[in-house]
Design goal:
Elements: H1 15-42, E1 49-52, H2 58-64, E2 70-73, E3 76-78, E4 81-84, E5 98-102, E6 108-111, E7 119-122, E8 125-130, E9 133-135, E10 147-150, E11 153-158, E12 161-163, E13 174-177, E14 180-185, E15 188-190, E16 197-200, E17 203-208, E18 211-213, E19 244-249, E20 255-257, E21 260-262, E22 266-271
Parallel strand pairs: 1-2, 2-5, 3-6, 4-7, 5-8, 6-9, 7-10, 8-11, 9-12, 10-13, 11-14, 12-15, 13-16, 14-17, 15-18, 16-19, 17-20, 18-21, 19-22
Amino acid sequence: MRKFSIYDFRFPIGERVIEHRKSKIGNLFAGLLSFGWMLLLARPAEAATYSMAPGDSWSAKLAQLQPGDTLLLQDGTYGPLSIDCSSNAQNGTASAPITLKAEHERQALFKSDGSAAAFDMLFCSYWEVSGLRAESADRPYADHGVFHVYRGDHLTFRRLLAAYNNRYANNHLYAIEESKNILIEESEGYAFHRHAFSIWKSHDVTIRRSYTNQRGWNRLPGCTYGPSVEGTPRCNGNPNGGDEAFVLYQSSQSLVENSIAENHGSGFQAHPGGLQSRHR
């Protein structure tokens, strides 16, 4: 009686069946091995945590950061920082943002002499910044604030502290410009003569649980109103220091909630223009 293989009923048991069976098993094993390698190659690299101290190279540290990575800043004073995701840094992703945070909150200080923003972030998406402190200073012929964000998207800022904007220009402690999907929470601002939080031509910005107090950072003697005059201090509208604490210029779909402003000309104001609509 003729018997048939379960692998191929066309071949009788014998040499042809055995060879056919070996071929089938070999092909199956090779296929599984290839599939396993494909899964390993497709799996994203595990997120890494790096540490930085004052004096370390920013260019080297920023070049290391991939989506999902964290950079911890040790205590100390750092010079002005510019993160530009079109040149010296990468964007994170929705599922793997890049995190920049102080190892101990408010103990990593970014300090500028007024010639540059203390913390500048340009063209970046999906970053989270937490626990930093930043200060600037008065400097003629310069127009830079403290924390500055330009054309950012899906950025989160938590528990920041900013103080001492440059009173020679129309600049602010926190300036968000032409950006969208921005969250600022549990942050503080002190010693400023214009605005603590300035949102300009931006969309879907949320500020919550934040506090501002100008603390006597008044205008400089000999200041002028209106457009900045080179080398001359910029006057603010409130002679006792601090104009609007939270201000929206030509922005849309934004929210300021559960925040406190003390010792200012005005706590909150939305200026018309552009897509100014549905602020809360």
